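seq as requested:
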Amino acid sequence: MAQQSDQFKKVISHAKEYGFVFPSSEIYDGLSAVYDYAQNGVALKKNIREYWWKSMVQLNENIVGIDSAIFMHPTIWKASGHVDAFNDPLIDNKVSKKRYRADVLVEDYVAKIEAKVEKEVSKAAKRFGDSFDEAQFKSTNPRVVGYQEKAVAILKRLGQSLEKEDLVDVKALIEELEISCPESGSRDWTEVKQFNLMFGTKLGASADSAMDLYLRPETAQGIFVNFLNVQKTGRMKLPFGIAQTGKAFRNEIVARQFIFRMREFEQMEMQFFVKPGTQKEWYEHWKETRLKWHKSLGMGDENYRFHDHDKLAHYADAASDIEFNFPFGFKELEGIHSRTDFDLKAHEEFSGKKLQYFDHEDNTSYTPYVVETSIGLDRMFLAVFSNSLVEEELDNNTTRTVLKLPAVLAPTKAAVFPLLKKDGLPEVARQIIEDLKWDFNVFYDEKDAVGKRYRRQDAAGTPFCITVDHETLDNNTVTIRHRDTMEQQRVNISELKAIINKEVDAKNWLTTM
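struct tokens:
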């Protein structure tokens, strides 16, 4: 756990040092759990968003996009259940005066048990070497089996208590597990109570006539209330999907872990409308499809796992999370939910407007069922960034810090260096920049020795560095260096576009799905 904490500190530090993420309002001592994406961060975020959009919308004939407003009629949130049921269980420690999510305290306790399992597995793997069978070890080793059974039992009880809204038992579980306040070490807890997560605001010219509104806590409802508009104007036939990316806002009790849990964040969601009775089939389809999308980025299959929900939301008949192995353990990255027909029926009831689909084949009208895929863009950013940051030992007994971002997502695709700031080399380098910038985000750097420039670009995640030298003036060739391998090639300037494109073109990544 200490090693994970050290790595996470390096991630946060590197994100600021190299222009990816800054604390918001930093010159005013910041604002809790709010961050600004800096020059490299905004480019990485944009590339992740586009990689998702291309796979979900551009490559699917039956999925279209919308961009709904953040401000929505307040009755929408009553219909969706957010006014009455969008709560987190809150608990305060009487000594530290700190507030926590009760379920997160329990989940963190379970994470420590899971870390013990991984420690036992790691020790056994070293002991048995190539003959080690991890699955068999986990199923037969008494200590590991005990740990796993305890973890499952705790989460099952927590899920059942939350589903029944038995907050007394949630506190009892915290006390039985002897969970202490992370700050004070005290076990003196208040009762558990529910806390609504929506931010309120007002719309109107004066306080007397202003309408009470909420900042949207999710983007999905903007899709549901536009279902019929999109279906009719797009002449969409079931099954079809509507995708959206955009900001959402939640007044999190414990916003923490850098950009993993923030109060202002961005979602990438797709609601897939299907014929009732086919939802389980499509649910499995999207589970498989979305996991393939994640794995297409080459961040290690072992870093992903499914977690099926024991406690289902009020609208769902099936739900699963794709969890990623962040520096602080496996946590939710994306949710796949079978939402039934809850949303459309609820909006029909509260609006008095019919939201049904007329099936010309069956000559009947019905309310479609929905399968949702929902991923946090900020969490995806953190997954990509933290997984890519490594320190490497080199052959000359030195180390380098390198951000091995998937090339398709890298903010800058290539940096161009003149070897010297004279002899016409900067002019040639500038011309290469002029030629490449129409297709790629490129960067010009002439300061310091080439070795230092390489290191800066390694740390910023740039896949290619191109050096212009005196030989370039003779034969029109340059040196292109590959970030991950540090391999250098001599190539003609005319070849650069094709070499870079082969590594960064989304088609070459998405076709691996």
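The longest strand covers residues 329-340.
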